[in-house]
L-ornithine N(5)-monooxygenase (Aspergillus mulundensis), 656 residues
Amino acid sequence: MMDENPVPSLTPGLIDPASMAGDAATTQARAVLDRLNSALATGDTKTLESCFYAEQAYWKDLLALTWHLRTFRGPSTIAASLLETAKLREVGAFEVDGEAVFLPATPVLQFIDCPLVFRTKSPAGLCRGKMLLLPVVEDANENKIAWKIWIFSTRLESLDVHPEDEKLLQSPRRPLDGPDSPDFETDVLIIGAGNAAVALSARLKALGVDSVMAERNPLPGDNWALRYDCMKFHIPTAFCDLPYMCASTDTLLLALTSSANPDTIGYGEELQTPHLLSRQDLADQVRRYVETFNLNAIYSAQIQRTEYDESTKRWSITFNTPSGQRRAISKHLVLATGIGSQKPNMPKIADAHLYRGISIHSSAYKNATVLKQQGVKTVTVIGSANTAFDVLADCHAAGLSATMNVRSPTYIVPLEYVCHPLSLGAYDSGVEAADKLFLSLPSFVDGQLARGLFAMFASNEPERYTALRNAGFPAMDSADPSCALMHNLLERAGGHYVDVGTTDLIVEKKVGVKANVEPTGYTETGLRFSDGSVLETDAVIWCTGFADGDVRTTAAEILGGEPNTDGVVNGEKKHILAPAEIAARLDGTWGVDAEGEIRGMWKRHGDAENIWVMGGYTQQHRWHSRTLALQIKAELEGLLPEAYRGTATKESNGYL
């Protein structure tokens, strides 16, 4: 999709930066908005269309007008859909929110970046966004330049009925312990209590919405604490902040007057970049978060049965706990158990019964010391992404003879590229500003800009991975135009390695490499590969990812039903949906749709009501916890509009 929609390339020197000094950028932006507002007010489709850059234009909306997550492409489609949704939402005038700035990003890409603010009446809310303007030569003879909208991005910030109130985060949690009250009611039952769940629970609490998390593990943060010991994040610490933990919010000031110790809130100075967060750092943060904001949770909860009553629009979730069986009745249900992290992808190869060694998926790996205690001396790591390199380094450090099986060429990204101030290192200068910078853009534009940045970095060190390739590792780097980190994250859910230095073990021949072959079967003492070769090994660690990127494959089991069960009507109770039926109604999740939006996440599902999927990576937990919380709040208040799923045309001004 990125290659089909390349970023515009402008004539070098089209704009003299000196001409954009002072308030010139803001003046140009206001002129564009005046024209756009006038066209919206009069219903002038032709004029509205002319406001957008003819060769390539995008409108990305997050709830503000569509009450969905949409990205429209092309001036004609944008103009027609914008006119229709503006009427539905009773949009006021779009205004400059502060000042616009001129950004000469490259010699062939120069634009005005303008923050926006506006209001809607139906429902009443405050909205913000941004527009990026590109210069167009209108009259070459007179050297007349017009500015056109390349990207128009809008998002709902808050609902007038109940803006986010951070003071509510200090209110006490509900008493949920004890066998005397096994049944309870709540607005929202969240299955899970990891980063995604706690972020959403806090957002809901700030909106005055009651929620309870049901977590299968004994303690908050166990989703991290129970991972393999050497696990680390390969991203800046600030990228991982949870909502309301940023120093720029009022919450830290609130904590000064509460019983919480401000020194224990958020990631401490010693944990900031260049420190890489460990599993324990992450676990501790989740625990602090739950305690600081008094979030409601029940732990060691094993879901037994989930039903949805279509007549009453209520969920019934039955689960076992150490104190007995409990039942929650809720208006909304959120699945926050993780995407691509629950169902290990364990390839099946021949003759597994012959092998006398240890063969485990990385999800069962604890540390290399455990392997040594079992008599292991040689290890083969299957895979070549982040987890595989972590395990490889851990085994080498423990004195084991380790070999990595690289089944196909792997994209290697140096850590310093990822943490550069022009990349995710921007989060170290301010989380809220960085979120708006990265998440306001269409995914395939953001992906291209990142790919171009990394390609520039790679061009300055073309021999960076020559020695690695010479050592037998089939490395792809950012100079390769087919490599894009955004593609790996959104389409493959991984498959790359952010290099924190472990590739040096391969270059220095401290570990082995077996490349461009697949394991096809076991022997009694090792593995047989697709080229006919055999490798003797005491243990095999399969770092081959997970098979549950699409929640439909695991939802029935999560909800207490049998996996892979056909959706059959639940006995004579025609209005009661059982786990398999619920799962069958969900939309697919992860990957991107034709508009570049992530499928099925943080938004309504076409055939399932009042059930949501919350997940992704930590940046998305923080940003989209608000997205989801606002939709739930609107539904509870009777204000949730129908999701705008169609695309208007200027001919029909209706739906296709």
The longest strand covers residues 124-139. The longest helix spans residues 24-42.
